[in-house]
Every structure is written in C-alpha cells, then in structure tokens.
C-alpha cells in the first residue's frame, strides 16, 4: 500500500509541475519581453507590474468561440492540441529532479523514452496543418515536417554522446556518473542539443512553421479559443522539458557546488530556469531564419558538430579506460 501511495504522490507532483511551470514560463516571457522591447501593454493588467496579464489571457481564450472549419477533418482537428500537449506530461514523469530516486518513474532506457515521446509532440502541429483545410496551415505543417526531419538527428546524436560517456541510458544513471569536467567535455553536444530542441519547439529564430508575416500563423491559423491556448501551453511545456533535459544531460542536474544531497532539487530548478530564460532571450534577440538557412544550419553545422562530439567522446572514453 505504501508503494502505491508513493507512486500516486509522485505522479501528482509531476502533474502539478506540468500545470504550474508552463504558466510561470508564459508569465515570465510576458515580463521579459516587456522589459527588453519596451512593451507597455503587459505591464498594466492587474496593477503592480502587470501581475494579472496571464489571467487576462486565460479569460480571453476562454471567451472566444470554438470554431471548426467546415472543410476540416473534424476529429483530427480537435485531437491535434491534445497530441501536441500530452507528450510533455509523459516526458516529465521520467526526468529526475534530485538524488535518492526523486523522479516520477525511473526507466532503464529513460533517454530513449523522453526523446521518442518528445518527437510525438511535433505530430500535433502536423495534424493541425493537415486537418485545417487551409493552404496556409498545410504549408505550416509541411514546414514542421521538414524541420522535424532536419533537427531530430542532431538532437539524438548529441544525447547519444552523453549516454556513451555515462555508459547508460538511464537519466538518474547519467547523473550518478556525472563529473564536473563533463561540462567542458560535452559542451558542444549541449549547444547542439539545445539548438535542435529550440527548432523542434518552433521557437524563434526557428519559427518558420508559424511565420506570421508569411503564412498568417501556420498550422494554427484556424484554431481559436481554448484549443489555440492548448498549443501555446504545449510550447511553454516544451520549454520546461527542453531546459530540464539540457540541465540533466549536460549541466549535471542536481549536482552543484554544495548541498547536492539536500538541495539537489534546487540546483535542477535553477539550471532549468536559467535555460528557460535563455529561450525567451533568444526570441527577442535574433530574427527569423529563412527556410533554406534553417535547413543549412541543421545539415551542414549541427549534424557535423554532433558527430564530432561523439567521436571525441569515444576517444576520451578509450583513453580513460
């Protein structure tokens, strides 16, 4: 009975994090962009520092009419937001937060699991673009497919380098094997992983599938109300997952200068928060890449770098052994 209760409490904690953290990221993005770009609007709602801006957005989405285009594939159109959002909930179950089994569910092949499930989330955009009966949406869906094919490979190769270094596919096992000198050793793989993750989330400067100046809003053009809000929530949940995975794989997760046992969870959260801030910072800093530039970056820069990191990891492993 105690084991069942422990599992229920862990899953409940994961669910609470899933509901709260993406909203925190959304609120932070409002404020960071307001300061960096001098936007006054997000600083007014609710009075002090615009604290109620996210609440106002939620009320706005809830009041909007839920419309399904007459020519759309109704079932696929309605299912797409859930397909985009739910995989990130499953990924959070396998990401360790602290030592001593502080994870929703420890998996022997946890790295394979999280990468495979994250890839499923992109299918929500493909489904939305195909089912909307809108040429702009279809074009956005096709761009999503091209982006997925280009950036999934460097992301997998970068993660494989860490698994090779640790000798395990278990995320807690990777953290148990971590040493401080892994950060400079695997830094190239970490940059490749983080960049490819941004592209898979379709975050600026890799937001070609939702280029509002070209194709209105890509695969999400026909979505309104709460269904559109679910796509936005999936984006923020993806930021949480990407930042947490990067911190676990390349920055040592719960390892820190002090208090690794008692404050391990705090180090994980701090690293995740810093990386999430970096995602927002990149949005307001760099212009959108052209489609050809986006593909060229993946195939001529990121993939060779990831392969070089794997080769370097193999050489170091042989020298150590």
UniProtKB/TrEMBL annotation:
Main function: NDH-1 shuttles electrons from NADH, via FMN and iron-sulfur (Fe-S) centers, to quinones in the respiratory chain. The immediate electron acceptor for the enzyme in this species is believed to be ubiquinone. Couples the redox reaction to proton translocation (for every two electrons transferred, four hydrogen ions are translocated across the cytoplasmic membrane), and thus conserves the redox energy in a proton gradient. This subunit may bind ubiquinone.
Keywords: Cell membrane, Membrane, NAD, Quinone, Translocase, Transmembrane, Transmembrane helix, Ubiquinone
Entry similarity comment: Belongs to the complex I subunit 1 family.
Annotated localization: Cell membrane; Membrane
Gene: nuoH
Keyword Cell membrane listed: yes
The protein's name: NADH-quinone oxidoreductase subunit H
GO cellular component: plasma membrane
GO molecular function, one term: oxidoreductase activity, acting on NAD(P)H, quinone or similar compound as acceptor
Reactions mediated catalytically: a quinone + NADH + 5 H(+)(in) = a quinol + NAD(+) + 4 H(+)(out)
Subunit structure: NDH-1 is composed of 14 different subunits. Subunits NuoA, H, J, K, L, M, N constitute the membrane sector of the complex.
The organism's place on the tree of life at top rank: Bacteria
Residue spans crossing the bilayer: 6-26, 76-97, 109-132, 153-175, 181-199, 228-252, 264-285, 297-320
InterPro entries in UniProt: NADH_UbQ_OxRdtase_su1/FPO
Gene Ontology biological process terms in this record: aerobic respiration
Keyword GTP-binding among UniProt keywords: no
Broad enzyme group: translocase
Topology in the lipid bilayer: Multi-pass membrane protein
EC number: 7.1.1.-
């Amino acid at each position: 009975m105690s084991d069942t209760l422990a599992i229920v409490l862990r899953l409940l904690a994961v669910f609470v994090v899933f509901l709260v953290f993406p909203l925190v990221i959304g609120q932070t993005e409002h404020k960071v962009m307001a300061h960096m770009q001098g936007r006054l609007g997000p600083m007014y709602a609710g009075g002090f520092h615009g604290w109620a801006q996210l609440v106002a957005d939620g009320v706005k989405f809830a009041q909007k009419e839920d419309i399904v285009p007459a020519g759309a594939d109704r079932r696929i159109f309605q299912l797409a937001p859930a397909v985009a959002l739910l995989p990130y909930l499953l990924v959070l179950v396998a990401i360790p937060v602290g030592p001593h089994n502080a994870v929703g569910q420890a998996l022997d092949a946890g790295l394979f699991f999280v990468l495979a499930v994250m890839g499923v989330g992109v299918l929500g955009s493909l489904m939305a673009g195909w089912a909307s009966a809108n040429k702009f949406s279809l074009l956005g869906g096709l761009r999503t497919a091209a982006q997925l094919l280009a950036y999934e490979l460097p992301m997998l190769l970068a993660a494989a380098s860490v698994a090779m270094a640790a000798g395990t596919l278990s995320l807690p096992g990777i953290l148990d094997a971590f040493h401080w000198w892994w950060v400079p050793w695997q830094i190239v793989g970490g940059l490749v992983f983080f960049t490819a993750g941004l592209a898979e989330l379709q975050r600026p400067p890799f937001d070609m599938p939702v280029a509002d100046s070209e194709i209105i809003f890509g695969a999400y053009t026909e979505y309104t109300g709460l269904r559109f809000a679910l796509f936005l929530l999936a984006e923020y949940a993806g930021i949480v997952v990407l930042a947490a995975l990067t911190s676990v794989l390349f920055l040592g997760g719960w390892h820190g200068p002090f208090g690794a046992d008692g404050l391990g969870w705090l180090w994980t959260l701090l690293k995740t928060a810093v990386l999430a801030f970096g995602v927002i910072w990149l949005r307001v800093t760099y212009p959108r890449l052209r489609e050809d530039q986006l593909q060229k970056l993946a195939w001529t820069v990121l993939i060779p770098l990831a392969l070089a990191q794997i080769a370097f990891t193999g050489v170091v492993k042989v020298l150590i052994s």
